[in-house]
């Protein structure tokens, strides 16, 4: 009886209470992330001031004041400069980008033949997208089509001169077409070459090792421009009289060799990170050198260095813009070349064109880096220490 | 019996061609043969081509008259100078832009990198946007943007933008007052050197005393007083020899002062902004690489947040940061060769001009390669020394 008076047993559960008002919700978030201390508050104010100063200007320039279409420079010039805009106007001249869009994409490729690069682009996307989505089956066939069949088809379509297609000089190529084809070939060549160089550098054969070390360290020590100079000025001297290389091919060789040296160092990092037991285990199974590398070491090593490989790809994609130095016109080159077009010369032209080019480069590079992060997460087998 | 004799023989090594040692020697010999043949073929072609084009070989051309002007030069140069001197001018220009670029990129990079780890959401986001924008566009584009997009559309010299301290900004670059060192100004430099030496000495003594007795000494303030105070004292004693030559506005141009040309300015700004984004990522990775336990343990010892950062986190983060930082410095130096695209006369640009004028492509490219390799090796050596100094000293 007494027990009943003294103690009290709860018979029903208490419902979960919401968190205290101080730790959730918008106000708590602000308190934690923006005004945690006096110094923090000052930083926030400075930050807001910075954003408030820059962002409206950018939006004004790029969207509100921008000119989207127009026949020539008058739409983007102020009255004083011989245009239609009021004095003191500043805004993006997207009309320039709009008018030159075709050139920015394929350069001076003949207009009646432009369906060819467009077809190649469609094929490329059609093969690349299923390659990138892990769930789509038949990766092997896809890879063969993408890395072996597509280059041949693309070569026939773009260069022409056979199957009734008129020949198009590579000197007429330009814009995004050059950027993408240089990077695609560079990526396709530099990865295998880089793997071979990395294996060579770790080889026990002294001569092969020395050769690989000398090649890698020399190329890594000099700027790409010097390599391109080398490819454009010295390669013709290396060949017998009368034999000449296409300029595009020379740039391709230069860019691929350059990227291969960086790739070799990235792959070597991966090879070094594989524990010795894996090598010994493969040896004890009786695998030969190439079997050991192909089945045991490389799959693990390459997975480890995916971020590094993609970084090298991104670096190479950005580096293709340097071919402007040996007077080839990639996306950046063709944009820059069009600044001198008297039909479009205004104070805003250069800025607008460059920002457009920056945006295209940015899209590709950012896409690559995000995809690499995704792959890294997907392939993560949880063996990381 | 027979079987025993078989056992006593050398173990079978399989076929001769499957012996890895023999194979190794064979493949290396093959590579050497191919390489020698290739080099011989190339050399043969080069000699053939050079004689056909009547191009001289050898480095004698370096003594020839250059005959072209260079817009910016740190040493005396005219079109009558030699090709060798032209290349030297280019090399100095490369070094100048690389050094100032590295300093600025490091400062911006550290600020942005630390900003990305800030508690403050807004600062974190601003820094992230900066890094993601600059990491993903080509450096050449950034250079063009500063050159054609920003500096080229500045007002003409007549309507220059006035900046503080009597400096101006216009289409032709950035003008600021030039310091004119009068008689007796050497005393200031001597005082500065003495100040630095004394500050170093004081820092050493203070450290020894702290190690021995635990007493601290305000090293920073003493050093500042010595390094700033002594030259100021010397300046006053020698009768104020330093004057400034201010840029003055005339009808069409600015005269006097020190002019920084837009080529240099855009290259410098672009390289600094671009490389800073990469340095920021390195710094962030370095600081995050120091485990939280270190910070917490330091806090438990009673260190203040500032001291934790200075004495515990940064020294450990630096060990992670230095090797990749070195390669970024090398990248910046190599990227300075993009100067050629906007006409800043760096090494590549001047050597390229020399190469075009003399036609001696082989020598020109070899000179470029050797100099860049030398710069790379030198930077690596310095940074490796620094790295070894910062490395963990284990007892």
Segments of chain B where pLDDT lies below 50 for 5+ residues? none
CATH superfamily placement of the largest domain in chain B: MetI-like
Q: At CATH's second level, what is the architecture of the largest domain in chain B?
A: Orthogonal Bundle
Radius of gyration of chain A: 29 Å
Strand content of chain A: under 5%
- CATH topology-level name of the largest domain in chain B: MetI-like fold
Determine and state the CATH class of the domain at 171-328 in chain A. Mainly Alpha
Helix content of chain B: 55-70%
Q: Stretches of chain A where pLDDT falls below 50 for ≥5 residues?
A: none
How many beta-strand segments of chain A?
0
Report the helical percentage of chain A. 55-70%
What structural category characterises the helix and strand content of chain A?
mainly alpha
- Going across the major beta sheet of chain B, what is the strand order? 1-2-3-8
The tally of strands of chain B reads: 8
- Give the number of helices of chain A: 15
On the 0-100 scale, what is the average pLDDT of chain B?
81
Mean pLDDT level of chain A: 82
Q: Round the Cα radius of gyration of chain B to an integer and report it.
A: 30 Å
Sum this structure up briefly.
The complex is a heterodimer of chains A (385) and B (395). With 385 residues, chain A is mainly α.
Structure description:
The complex is a heterodimer of chains A (385) and B (395). Chain A is mostly helical and 385 residues long. Among the domains of chain A are: 110-167; 171-328, Orthogonal Bundle (MetI-like fold). Chain A has 15 helices and no strands. Chain A has helices at 2-6, 25-33, 38-64, 94-106, 115-132, 139-159, 175-201, 206-221, 224-238, 247-273, 276-284, 289-304, 306-319, 331-339, 349-379. Chain A is flat, with a radius of gyration of 29 Å. Chain A starts with a helix and ends in a 6-residue tail after the last helix. Chain B is of the alpha+beta class and 395 residues long. Chain B has 3 domains: 16-53; 83-177 and 246-390, Orthogonal Bundle (MetI-like fold), CATH 1.10.3720.10; 184-245. Chain B has a 4-stranded antiparallel β-sheet with strand order 1-2-3-8. In chain B, strands 4-5 form a two-stranded antiparallel sheet. Chains A and B meet through helix 3, helix 8, helix 9, helix 13 and helix 14 of A and helix 2, helix 4, helix 5, helix 10 and helix 11 of B.
């Amino acid at each position: 009886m007494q027990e009943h008076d003294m103690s009290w047993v709860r018979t029903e559960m208490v419902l979960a209470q919401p968190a205290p008002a101080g730790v959730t919700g918008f106000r708590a978030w602000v308190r934690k992330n923006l005004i945690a201390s006096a110094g923090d508050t000052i930083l926030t104010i400075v930050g807001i001031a910075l954003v408030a100063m820059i962002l409206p200007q950018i939006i004004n320039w790029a969207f509100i004041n921008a000119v989207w279409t127009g026949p020539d420079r008058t739409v983007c010039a102020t009255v004083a400069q011989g245009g239609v805009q009021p004095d003191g106007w500043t805004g993006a001249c997207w009309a320039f980008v709009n008018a030159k869009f075709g050139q920015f994409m394929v350069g001076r490729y003949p207009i009646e033949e432009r369906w060819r690069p467009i077809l190649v682009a469609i094929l490329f996307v059609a093969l690349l997208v299923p390659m990138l989505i892990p769930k789509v089956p038949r990766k092997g066939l896809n890879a063969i089509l993408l890395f072996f069949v597509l280059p041949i088809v693309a070569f026939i379509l773009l260069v022409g001169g056979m199957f009734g297609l008129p020949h198009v000089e590579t000197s007429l190529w330009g814009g995004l077409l050059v950027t993408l084809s240089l990077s695609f070939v560079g990526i396709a060549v530099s990865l295998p070459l880089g793997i071979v160089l990395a294996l060579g550098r770790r080889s026990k054969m002294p001569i092969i090792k020395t050769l690989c070390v000398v090649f890698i360290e020399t190329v890594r020590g000099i700027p790409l421009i010097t390599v391109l100079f080398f490819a454009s000025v010295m390669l013709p001297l290396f060949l017998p009289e009368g034999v000449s290389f296409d300029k595009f091919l020379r740039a391709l060789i230069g860019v691929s060799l350059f990227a291969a040296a960086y790739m070799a160092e990235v792959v070597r990092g991966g090879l070094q990170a594989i524990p010795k037991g894996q090598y010994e285990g493969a040896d004890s199974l009786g695998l030969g050198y190439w079997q050991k590398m192909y089945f045991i070491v490389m799959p693990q090593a390459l997975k480890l260095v995916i971020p590094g490989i993609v970084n090298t790809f991104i670096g190479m994609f950005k580096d293709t813009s340097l071919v402007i130095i040996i007077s080839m016109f990639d996306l950046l080159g063709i944009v820059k070349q069009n600044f001198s077009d008297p039909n479009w010369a205004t104070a805003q032209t250069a800025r607008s064109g460059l920002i457009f080019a920056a945006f295209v480069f940015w899209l590709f590079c950012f896409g690559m880096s995000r995809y690499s992060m995704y792959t890294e997460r997907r392939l993560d087998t949880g063996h990381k220490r | 019996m027979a079987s025993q004799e078989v056992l006593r023989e050398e173990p079978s090594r399989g076929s001769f061609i499957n012996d890895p040692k023999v194979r190794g020697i064979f493949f290396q010999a093959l590579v050497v043969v191919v390489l020698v043949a290739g080099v011989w073929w190339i050399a043969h072609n080069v000699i053939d081509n050079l004689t056909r084009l009547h191009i001289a070989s050898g480095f004698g051309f370096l003594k020839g008259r250059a005959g072209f002007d260079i817009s910016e030069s740190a040493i005396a140069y005219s079109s009558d100078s030699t090709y060798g001197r032209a290349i030297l001018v280019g090399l100095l220009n490369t070094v100048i832009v690389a050094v100032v670029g590295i300093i600025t990129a490091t400062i911006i990079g550290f600020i942005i990198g630390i900003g990305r780890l800030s508690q403050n959401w807004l600062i974190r986001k601003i820094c992230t946007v900066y890094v993601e924008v600059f990491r993903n566009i080509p450096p050449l584009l950034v250079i063009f943007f500063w050159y054609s997009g920003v500096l080229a559309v500045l007002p003409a010299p007549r309507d220059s933008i006035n900046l503080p301290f009597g400096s101006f900004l216009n289409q032709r670059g950035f003008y600021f007052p030039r310091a004119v060192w009068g008689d007796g100004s050497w005393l200031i430099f001597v005082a500065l050197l003495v100040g630095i030496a004394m500050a170093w000495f004081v820092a050493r003594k203070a450290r020894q005393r702290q190690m021995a007795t635990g007493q601290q000494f305000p090293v920073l303030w003493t050093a500042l007083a010595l390094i700033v105070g002594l030259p100021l004292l010397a300046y006053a004693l020698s009768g104020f020899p330093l004057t400034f030559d201010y840029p003055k506005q005339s009808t069409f141009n600015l005269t006097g002062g020190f002019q920084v040309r837009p080529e240099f300015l855009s290259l410098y700004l672009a390289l600094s902004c671009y490389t800073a984004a990469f340095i920021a990522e390195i710094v962030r990775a370095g600081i995050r690489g120091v485990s939280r336990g270190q910070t917490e343990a330091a806090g438990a010892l009673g260190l203040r947040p500032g001291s934790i950062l200075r004495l515990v986190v940064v020294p450990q983060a630096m060990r992670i940061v230095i090797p990749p930082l070195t390669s970024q410095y090398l990248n910046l130096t190599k990227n300075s060769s993009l100067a050629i695209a906007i006409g800043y006369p760096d090494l590549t640009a001047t050597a390229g001009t020399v190469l075009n004028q003399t036609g001696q492509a082989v020598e020109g490219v070899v000179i470029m390669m050797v100099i860049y390799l030398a710069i790379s090796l030198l930077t690596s050596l310095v940074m490796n020394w620094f790295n070894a100094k910062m490395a963990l000293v284990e007892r």
